[in-house]
Each structure stands twice: as C-alpha cells, then as structure tokens.
Amino acid sequence: MTILLVLLSIAILVLLIVWAKLNPFLAFIISSISAGLLLGLPADQIAGSIQSGMGNLLGDLVIVIVMGAMLGKLVAESGAAQKIAGFLMGIFGEKNITWAMSITGLVVGIPLFYNVGFVLLVPLAFTVAYQYKISAVYVGIPLLAALSVTHGFLPPHPSPAALVAQFDANMGLTLFYGFLIAIPTIIIAGPIFAKTLKNVHANPLSTFQAEIRPESELPDTFNSFFTALLPVFLLVSTTALNLNIEPESSLGPIIRFIANPGIVMLISVLVATYTLGLKRGFKMTQLMDIYTIATKDIAMILLIVAGAGALKQIFTDTGVSQVIADGLSTWDIPPLLLAWIITAIIRVCVGSATVAGLTTAGIIAPLVTTMNVDPNLLVLSIGAGSLMFSHFNDGGFWMYKEFFNVSIKDTIKTWSLMETLVAIIGLIGVLILDVFV
What we know:
437 residues, mainly alpha
C-alpha cells in the first residue's frame, strides 16, 4: 500500500508537469503536500518538512550552482569557448571534424550549463558545417552528445551536483568516475553514431548562425583552456591528495578546505574574473553585470532543485524512503540498474532530466546504506537514466528541432536516439566500473 501511495504522489507530479503544464517548482511543492497528506504526515508538520528539505539541499548546492553559472557565462562572453572550439578544429581538421566537435562539447560543456552550451556552440557547429559543405546534423550530434553527457554525469552541473549532496558522495571521485564513463559514451553516441547521419538533411535558420568574434578579441589558448577547466583540475587533484595524504598530516585540513566543491568554484570564479576579465580589459562593473545575468539564468534550476529536496524530505519524514528501500532490497535487481530504470521511466514521463534524477534520489536514498551501494556510481547511474529517450515533453527536443530545422521524424531518428544511446552506454559503463571499484 505504501508503494502505491508513493506512485500516486509521483503520478500527481507527472500529471501536473505534463498535463496541467505547471511549472516544475510549483508541481514539486503541490506533490510534496499531496504526498505528505497521503502518507499520513500530520498536516501541521508538512510545511516544516518542505522548508527543511529545501533548505538542506540548497545549503549544499547554492554556491556550486551559482558559481558554476557565473564561470560558464564568463567563458562564453569572453570568447574563451570560441577559442577552444577553433583550436580543436585546427588540430583535427575536416577529416576528423566530428571528433573535434565532441571534444569541444566536452571541454566547453564542463563549466557551461546545458542550455547555455547549446545556444553558444550549436551556431558554431552550423558555421563549420557551412564551411565544409556537410550536414549540420552530422557535425552537431557529436557536439550535443558531449554536452548531454556533461549535463547528466559531471559536477558541477545541477543534477549530478545535487545527487552528490543527497547521497553524501565524494564530488571529486564522482567527477573522476564520470570521466571514465563519459569518454566512451561520447565516442559511441557522438562520432561513431554520427557516421549514420551524413545524409540527414538540415537547413539551419540564419537567425541561429554564430556571430564569430575576430581572433584579436579572443583570449589566448592556454588561458581559455586553463580557466574553463580549472574546477576539474582542482577537484581531481585535491581528491587525489586527500586519498594519499596521511590522516595526521598538518596539510590535511587545508586540502580538505580547498577540496570543498563550493570553495573550488569560488576559487575558479575569482581566477576567471582576473584571467578572462580584468586582465583582458573588462571593467569590474561589466563582469558583475555578466554574473548577475548568469544568476538570473539559473534561478529556476535552483527552485526545481529545492522542490525536489522538499519531496525527498516528505518521503524521509514519513519513513517511506526506508520502507521502499527495504522492499526493493528483496528484488533480484542490482541497485544501480534499479536506480537507472526508475529514473529512465520518470524521465520519459516528465521530460526533465533534472526532475527525473532528483525525484529518484528521494525515493532510493536509503539504498546507499542498506544495500552497500557505492554512492558515486549511484549518482552516475541516475545521471545516465535521466537522459533516456528525449521526446515531445522535453525542451531540448524542441530546441534541437528548431535550431537544426529538421522534421519531427528526423529529430527522433537523430536527437532522441542519441540521447537513448547516451543513457544505455552510460549504464553499461557504470555496471562495468562497479566490478572494479
């Protein structure tokens, strides 16, 4: 009966988003209240539970997500993203153009939120396709595969960062494992899959052609790569040091302080403010305006994350999460696979990768302790499931269709299939990694 009530709560969430077209944040709050009432939480405790869940989750994430948005916006506005793309194109050339686009998507996609990366890089892909007289879909799919993988697998993107916080995982280890899985996933869903798309016709609208900056206005190559990838360098290096340093070492507290994801992002933004901003002639007021716009861009993401925290807290306070975990522990399905299946189902129903991932996290969080699941791999399993089969209820589906100006049929054959490949290959990578870690 308990599981049926949980399913009813999730059904309410899905219907509010898909059928009633309600904003996901409002849908989360309403479904949280509904879940509390259905599951027997006293009415006077529901509001407190919702507030607690929102505060606990956002407390871990606000710095990471906001600083990530600021860094990504500056990477875009400074021309660093264009410099990275141009440099990689120069190395790989026309013959290996899909590999160049995949690496561009991976490198630039790490600091950029998905929608920003899409809008910034897809017009560059159109320019490349026009220059070499080849299909824009053939050039664009490898780029978008890489952007999708960074969005679903790699902190500091909102969903994986939120999952790290919910499961008390290690962000550095999650990032390291994420890279191990991301690279083969991007290769298969990107350049290899793109070979089947050379004849797919696309006629990108002139509105979406990139405004290419003169080379003289771009930062140098080292500055562009170093600044964009600084969060990765800091997270991976401090995690490695943490694993190898003696517990009683006096450097331990300092390394752990720097390793905190919020501190990593703060350091990265401060460095970028100088290297991509002040050093290149930007005024401080200009930079602060860029950062203000960046925070406006991700305000709704923060609210959706907060709403997911509210629903998770309702499940926790009613004891439902533990009941479900106990029930699932008797299923003869590996927990990592189970997490992927639940997430994929919610993703197909709701459309939002972030909503799917965070909803699943609230349901299966107790599995981390009751079934001895590696929390870092659980983050990646859910991240992979959250990208399953993007279709009509996903904004990304329509962005792709309109930017590339292709038919619904070709959108499903290219975009939807690419997203499905990413989800399935990502799961396979998680299961393989689970054998060794």
